Structure formats: C-alpha cells, structure tokens
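Good morning,

Attaching, inline, the backbone tokens for the sequence recovery test we're adding to the shared suite. The designed sequence is right after.
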C-alpha cells in the first residue's frame, strides 16, 4: 500500500503543476502570436507597438509562471491586466474601426484574461 500512496501523491503533484503550467504555456503562445502578427500580417497603419509590447510581456509572464509556479497569483493578476489592456487598446488607441486588428487584440485579450483567471484560481498559497 505505501507504494500506491507514493504513486498517487506523485500523480497529484504532477496534475497540480500541469494545471498551472498549461494555461501559462497558452498565454505564452498568445504573446508570441501578438509579437509576430505585425510582421506576418499587414494590417495597415495602426499602433502595432502596443501588440508587440503586450506580447513580449505575456511571454515574460508565461516563462516566469513556468519557472516559478508558486508566484502564479501575482503573475496571473499581471497577465489579466495585460489582457485587459489588449481588450481596451483598440478603443483607447483609436483603431477599433480596423476590424481585423481590433478583433485579433480582443480575442487574444479575452483568452489571456480567462487563462490568467484559471492560473490565479489554481495558485499555490504562500
């Protein structure tokens, strides 16, 4: 029986870390998408620097959450704030009438906020 308990404990720890790491990986992919989108897809003239900066921040937050999952609550809040900026940016920076760019930012922002909430809910207490 002790061997079974040890295996069960390892499986539970692994699942707990996967729940934190998987959303973080998707946040990182969203950040990568935001960084390469202005280069790959020509959307015309819009403040592309906002997407690149937000994408770089998301990549950094994602890497930080994978390396230090114990701090995931604070990093999740930061990710949600970046996602909120992505949702607001088309309206704040005045390119909401460019539908392709605006929808891209809105969708990535909503996904980042949702994934950050999942990360925050599964955060380990200090």
């Amino acid at each position: 029986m002790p061997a079974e308990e040890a295996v069960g404990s390892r499986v539970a720890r692994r699942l707990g870390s996967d729940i934190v790491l998987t959303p973080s990986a998707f946040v990182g992919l969203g950040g990568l998408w935001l960084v390469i989108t202005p280069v790959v897809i020509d959307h015309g003239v819009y403040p592309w620097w906002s997407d690149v900066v937000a994408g770089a921040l998301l990549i950094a937050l994602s890497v930080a959450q994978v390396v230090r999952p114990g701090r995931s609550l604070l990093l999740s809040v930061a990710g949600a704030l970046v996602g909120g900026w992505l949702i607001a940016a088309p309206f704040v920076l005045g390119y909401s009438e460019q539908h392709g760019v605006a929808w891209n930012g809105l969708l990535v922002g909503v996904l980042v906020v949702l994934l950050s909430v999942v990360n925050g809910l599964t955060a380990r207490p200090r």
